[in-house]
Amino acid sequence: MRAFIAIALPDSARAALADLQARLPVGRPVAEENLHLTLAFLDDQPPAVLEDLHDDLSGLRAPGFDLTLAGLGGPGGAAPALIWIAADPSPPLVQLHARVEAAVRRAGIALPRQRFRPHVTLARFGRRRPGGGEQVRLQAFLAAEGAVRLDPVPVRDFALWQSSLHRDGPVYEELARYPLQG
Predict the structure, then answer these.
(1) How many CA atoms within 13 Å lie on the side-chain side of 124?
(2) Measuring CA to CA, which residue among 180, 178, 122, 170 is closest to residue 3?
(3) Which class for 161: exposed (0-12), middle (13-18), buried (19 or more C-beta within 10 A)?
(4) Which CATH number is 76's domain given?
(5) Residue 36 is assigned to a structural domain of this protein
(6) 111 lies in some domain
(7) pTM for the whole thing?
(8) Alpha carbon distance 108, 112 (integer Å)
(9) What is the pLDDT of residue 76?
(10) Selection from 179, 171, 178, 177 nearest residue 1 by Cα
(11) Residue 175: how many CB atoms within 10 A of its CB?
């Protein structure tokens, strides 16, 4: 089962991001209902492993916090593979990520060692990166909208999700939700 652990965004934040996506001149926008902040991508895992992980995540204790989403960008420099809105790596978010990763590793799931760059993906470019006129329009969009800042998003839980790939894009199903304290 293809799975990931993420912070779901409230309707108000997803609506604000969908408005921003509507102005994005290139790329394939992430469906509004799929906008989230990934804490760990688990890839394909057997159900028994996910059950062990669920048991561990059910005992995880971490405080709730407010998430700040501000600033557009993406990996890949002038020709990014995707566009995201960055999330402030606040101590509570970084600590939650570390605790989730530790639980994932205890469940026997190997994760790549990489720096945590919290973000919400807004659009993907796939194999065909923006070039020529698309590149110019993308750079103009980033110059005009790049400093966007959303109202703080309250984070009071996170969830384990299943991801099913379909012709029209992925479909996410929440498998379990884990409350944060406070």
Answers:
(1) 9
(2) 170
(3) buried
(4) 3.90.1140.10
(5) yes
(6) yes
(7) 0.92
(8) 13
(9) 67
(10) 171
(11) 16
Using 70 as the pLDDT threshold, list the residues of the chain that sit under it.
76-79, 126-132
Q: Is residue 182 part of a domain?
A: no
Q: What is the pLDDT of residue 80?
A: 72
E strands, the chain, in order: 2-8, 28-29, 36-44, 65-67, 69-73, 82-87, 119-124, 153-155, 157-166, 169-179
Other beta carbons within 10 angstroms of residue 157's beta carbon come to 12
Q: Are 182 and 62 in contact (CB under 8 A)?
A: no
The alpha carbon of residue 97 and the mean position of all alpha carbons in its chain are separated, in whole angstroms, by 12
In a domain, 146, yes or no: yes
CB 37 within 8 A of CB 134: no
Q: Which domain holds residue 89?
A: 2-176
Q: Considering just the CA atoms, what is the radius of gyration of the chain in Å? A: 17
Domain count, the chain: 1
